[in-house]
């Protein structure tokens, strides 16, 4: 999903929050369903990593490396920190992006926000 979003945005995509001179509103593809699908993808990616590495049969579980107390604490802490960071980013940055785009694009953004009401999860948020 994140790759699809990056490809859909093309040159407008950036890690940094910014509105460029040539900025235009992208309303096609995943942006026709939710306003910030890349962050939805980030949440799914984070959850997927925890499931992939923490599930029965995963390398981490099968190798026995988690039997080493330090490694187990390190793995659990790493998963907790990365998942919390991804969740925080995915919940907070869309509001800031919405404000920036509304200021820059005005009525065009407002019309799109009325049409695409949800930021991350269709019908929920």
From TrEMBL:
A UniProt-annotated Pfam family: ICMT
Name the EC number(s). 2.1.1.100
Q: Which UniProt keywords apply?
A: Endoplasmic reticulum, Membrane, Methyltransferase, S-adenosyl-L-methionine, Transferase, Transmembrane, Transmembrane helix
Q: What biological-process GO terms show up in the record?
A: methylation
Its top-level enzyme class, in one word, is transferase
Protein family = Belongs to the class VI-like SAM-binding methyltransferase superfamily. Isoprenylcysteine carboxyl methyltransferase family.
Protein name according to UniProt: Protein-S-isoprenylcysteine O-methyltransferase
Origin species, per record, is Suillus subaureus
